[in-house]
Amino acid sequence: MDARRLARNAIYDDGAITHSDIPSVTQAKYELLSDDGNLNFEYDTAKFSDIAGFARLKTWLSERKAFFTGDAQVAHMPAPKGVLLLGVQGCGKSLAAKAVAGAWQAPLLRLDFGSLYNKYYGETEKNLRDVLKTAEVMSPCVLWLDEIEKGIVSGGDDSGPAKRVLATLLTWMAEKKAPVFLVATANDITALPPELVRKGRFDEIFFVDLPTEEVRFAIFDIHLKRQKQSPELFDFARLVDISEGFSGAEIEQSVISAYYSAHAQGVSFSQELLMNELRKTRPLSIVMSEQIASLRHWAQDRTVPCD
Question: What domains does the chain contain, in order, with CATH numbers?
Fold first, then answer.
């Protein structure tokens, strides 16, 4: 019945089913398969050209794309399993997850851990099994587990649903055959159980650090162009210098705030307005310097830098 309705809608638009109908029909199919609210189909998947930095991650993904899509005819090589993206908040972990799907031209599904939990015994694990089964039906795809530490661990004394969810997920990760690539993002890896992050569960653990000078330069260039500004009118060296310690999200917000300020004052967007917004901002690397320093120290010899 659903298939007939999709076909009728495709014909209704222009009187025929053509190649141009494939994207809209495919999107409608994904919406039908994930209509229980636990699994969300992400329509907008970023391209790697839309994100600055991540040089090592980009190379890593490009080397494995053919093995995920099946273009590499090597029988003894397994398909890539997934990656865990750990890092400082606001530095692009979620954007990188979207970019994986965009780079591999695969649908991106986001698992909402909060909607999985149910007060009735066994229903939480059933919801997770249904989600994973749906992901396999929609494969090849990318399954994004956003802020995984909030869904796997619900408290140190919890011995119920959280542990059963973890057991269900680990079993599926070990036994799955379908090309479902996991991208898990986390802000606090110490909250994750060791059996989830050991080598073999994920292919690699990448650390997303604060952007370097070169990356901040690219971030300013991207966001100024999004605000219809000409980059050549700005002194990037000064912007990069004053934004040391800023995350990508904080730089983006500074550009947006400067645009609001220009509109409110009835003046043109300028270098001085942007620098004023940067000076007024106290980045997370200063507000929570101890926690971020500890995270960066932990990741130094345990993870692979994204850049």
Answer: 39-208 (3.40.50.300), 213-286 (1.10.8)
